[in-house]
């Protein structure tokens, strides 16, 4: 304290501050991974997701694509499960197992993309509404209120009806399904992010940032975003399940892209083929189970992430 | 409470200059930063229990901060200290009056505010809360630099310099630490370094040591004094702690219910308080040199939504209650006439009908 020499201490730190920070972050990530690994349900979810994702990604290597077309079907219609077709065949003689594995590609892709769309939308709207509502003056409060009323409007609309309407209005295709789902499931994320933003905005370091001269962008990106990211991450894993179910529902209702194979599409094909009344269970049950398993796995992962981030939830894992 | 009357740059670290300019030069006449009849009213809207109304947190304050001058703003909780500090920083827009910096009124367009905020910096009460827990010390200190000039090549050097100045040495050992790994005093030093890195001219500190323990508090105060001596920094320190004001300030402004009620050099105000409120505050200090014993204020604690008519202190004023004001013949004025708002200059003033000699709040010449 008595040394008042204003010169800096040797300003050539061996590792640069950024490298140090990166190392710290890696260590924090390691801690997160270890504490996640203690959550058994979360590990189960992660493992089953890895298996399903690997199968979906490597599908073209062990599934003959021509076998998936109606004309190139390898077996007889409605063959019960056997050694050659572990889950039997459908009404055209295609292997149901192959269809399920192939369908995972579309179902997962649409589920993940729709989640990205809705989480991005929800985060942007939530942070904007939260930030300007608390520190944007009168204009900001009005803008925030308008945004939140729009959110409420989307929240009270039945998600499925809206998605069906959107899918019907927009040009057909997988992209449309992504948009339709993305545009309907974002409101809870926006509300959640807004609440978290308000909590962060009330902290003194946000006031300090403003006193330092930081503008809205600075506060939102430098302070609010890193602090809402954990919540967003947990919300993302939970939303994937919702999105996959929504995709299956839309496909089941015939709103999907008829040229692609997805789990909901298989279910719909089974229904139109009369598999229900004919008691062809191996055509109906596997896609439904697949949807349930993936949704469950994502939910387990989400809950595990949530409990790692928020230690108060840790007891009831 | 004793200390040398007149000091120049003293050789001891513990008792730095009090009333003299650090360079020894005469104080510059135009104040660096001043509040000009600043008023802030919060409208509470409609609330259950009849608490609706307008809260006059700051109700007409003139205050000047000169070059290299440390001013203490003292008063009890809720008297408007923090609001006034926020107004001076441009974080709160006054509903009346203006903030004047270097003779020009403060602009509230974002560009004007941004350049203002390079020169006037804030140190908050709670060092734990004022650092983002997800940012390292380096990032927190560099934040101001990045806001104003983006990431520059000499950033690490400047951050190291600011940390060293704030007493965190060797600075690079602190770069990668997170706030939760530091002690309270170290955190407050990081906050101060984050303010210093922009080379400000004025530091507005709101209860800078209230949440620190006694030994650390001394160190932080010494740091503020060193900064004033080495960098010529001006400071406005809002505090409820009269001992703190005594230790670091040149001048003291005592606030009560949104007004400055007494203003003057720290020796004058604290050793010969004129306003009954200042007297009451001082009389309850453990080592108070009081003849009358501690004066405990009676009546309700002040409510900025219901500022009493007349002198705002009169319902709790011991002088009025004891009949002394009656004997002096000012009791009627105390109840009905609001004392004039004190001007903010260097002169000793008091806003009290009983203690002041004239309407301008000057003291009677003894």
Task: Please give a handful of descriptors for the protein shown.
heterodimer, A: 317 residues, mainly alpha, MetI-like fold, 0% strand, elongated, B: 366 residues, alpha/beta, Rossmann fold, 2 domains, seven-stranded mixed sheet, four-stranded antiparallel sheet, disordered N terminus, MetI-like (chain A)
What does this molecule look like?
With 317 residues, chain A is an all-alpha fold. Chain A has helices at 17-37, 40-62, 96-135, 137-156, 159-169, 174-184, 187-201, 204-211, 216-252, 263-272, 275-278, 281-309. In chain A, helix 3 packs antiparallel against helix 4 (137-156). The radius of gyration of chain A is 25 Å and the shape is elongated. In chain A, 42% of the residues are buried. Chain B has two domains: 33-43 and 54-249, P-loop containing nucleotide triphosphate hydrolases (Rossmann fold, 3-Layer(aba) Sandwich); 274-350, no CATH class. In chain B, helix 6 links the parallel strand 7 and strand 8. Chain B has helices at residues 81-88, 110-119, 137-149, 155-165, 184-196, 214-231, 242-248, 266-271, 276-283, 318-321, 324-328, 331-336; strands spanning 33-43, 54-65, 70-74, 96-101, 104-105, 120-123, 202-206, 234-239, 251-256, 259-265, 349-350. In chain B, the strands form two sheets. Chain B has a seven-stranded mixed sheet, with helices on both faces. A four-stranded antiparallel sheet of chain B has the order 2-1-4-5. In chain B, helix 4 packs across helix 5 (184-196). Chain B starts with 32 loop residues before the first strand and ends in a 16-residue tail after the last strand. With 366 residues, chain B is an alpha/beta fold. The chains are: A mainly alpha (317), B alpha/beta (366). At the A-B interface, helix 1, helix 8 and helix 9 of A face helix 2, helix 3, helix 4, helix 5 and helix 6 of B.
């Amino acid at each position: 304290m008595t040394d008042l020499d204003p010169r800096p201490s040797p300003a050539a730190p061996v590792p640069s501050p950024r490298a140090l920070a990166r190392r710290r972050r890696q260590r924090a990530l390691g801690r997160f991974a270890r504490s996640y690994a203690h959550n058994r349900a979360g590990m189960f979810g992660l493992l089953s997701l890895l298996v399903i994702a690997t199968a979906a990604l490597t599908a073209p290597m062990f599934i003959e694509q021509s076998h998936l077309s109606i004309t190139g079907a390898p077996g007889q219609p409605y063959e019960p499960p056997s050694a050659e077709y572990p889950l039997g065949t459908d009404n055209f003689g295609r292997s149901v197992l192959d269809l399920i594995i192939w369908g995972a590609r579309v179902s997962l892709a649409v589920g993940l993309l729709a989640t990205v769309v809705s989480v991005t939308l929800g985060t942007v709207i939530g942070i904007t509404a939260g930030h300007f509502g608390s520190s944007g003056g009168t204009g900001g409060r009005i803008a925030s209120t308008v945004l939140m009323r729009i959110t409420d409007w989307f929240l009270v609309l039945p998600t499925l009806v809206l998605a069906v309407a959107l899918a019907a209005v927009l040009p057909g295709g997988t992209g449309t399904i992504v948009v339709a789902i993305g545009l309907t499931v974002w409101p809870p994320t926006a509300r959640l992010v807004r609440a978290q933003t308000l909590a962060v905005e009330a902290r003194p370091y946000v006031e300090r940032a403003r006193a330092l001269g930081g503008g809205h962008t600075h506060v939102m990106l430098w302070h609010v975003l890193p602090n809402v990211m954990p919540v967003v991450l947990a919300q993302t894993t939970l939303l994937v399940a919702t999105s996959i179910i929504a995709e299956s529902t839309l496909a089941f209702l015939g709103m999907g892209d008829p040229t692609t194979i997805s789990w909901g599409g298989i279910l719909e094909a089974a229904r139109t083929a009369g598999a229900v009344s004919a008691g062809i269970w191996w055509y109906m049950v596997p896609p439904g189970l697949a949807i349930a398993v993936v949704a469950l796995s994502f939910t387990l992962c989400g809950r595990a992430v949530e409990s790692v981030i928020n230690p108060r939830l840790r007891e009831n894992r | 409470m004793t200390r040398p009357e007149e000091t120049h740059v003293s050789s001891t670290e513990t008792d730095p200059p009090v009333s003299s300019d650090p360079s020894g030069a005469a104080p510059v006449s135009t104040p660096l930063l001043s509040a000009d009849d600043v008023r802030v009213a919060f409208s509470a809207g409609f609330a259950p229990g009849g608490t609706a109304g307008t809260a006059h947190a700051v109700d007409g304050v003139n205050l000047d901060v000169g070059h290299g001058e440390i001013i203490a703003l003292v008063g009890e909780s809720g008297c408007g200290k923090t609001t006034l500090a926020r107004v001076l920083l441009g974080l709160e827009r006054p509903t009346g009056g203006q903030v004047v910096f270097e003779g020009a009124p403060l602009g509230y367009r974002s560009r004007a505010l941004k350049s203002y905020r390079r020169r006037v910096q804030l140190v908050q009460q709670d060092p734990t809360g004022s650092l983002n827990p997800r940012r390292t010390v380096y990032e927190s200190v560099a934040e101001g630099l990045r806001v104003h000039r983006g990431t520059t090549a000499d950033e690490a050097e400047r951050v190291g310099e600011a940390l060293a100045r704030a007493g965190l040495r060797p600075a690079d050992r602190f770069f990668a630490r997170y706030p939760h790994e530091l002690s309270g005093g170290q955190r407050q030093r990081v906050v101060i370094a984050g303010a210093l890195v922009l080379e400000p001219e004025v530091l507005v500190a709101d209860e800078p040591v209230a949440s620190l323990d006694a030994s650390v508090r001394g160190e932080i105060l010494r740091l503020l004094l060193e900064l004033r001596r080495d960098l010529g920094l001006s400071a406005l320190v809002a505090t409820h702690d009269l001992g703190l004001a005594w230790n670091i300030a040149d001048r003291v402004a005592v606030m009560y219910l949104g007004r400055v009620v007494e203003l003057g050099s720290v020796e004058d105000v604290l050793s010969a308080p004129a306003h009954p409120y200042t007297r009451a505050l001082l009389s309850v200090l453990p080592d108070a040199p009081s003849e009358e014993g501690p004066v405990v204020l009676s009546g309700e604690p002040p409510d900025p939504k219901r500022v009493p008519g007349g002198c705002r202190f009169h319902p709790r004023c011991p002088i009025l209650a004891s009949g002394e004001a009656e004997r002096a013949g000012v009791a009627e004025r105390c109840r009905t006439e609001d004392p004039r708002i004190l001007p903010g200059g260097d002169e000793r003033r008091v806003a009290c009908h009983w203690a002041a000699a004239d309407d301008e709040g000057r003291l009677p010449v003894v």
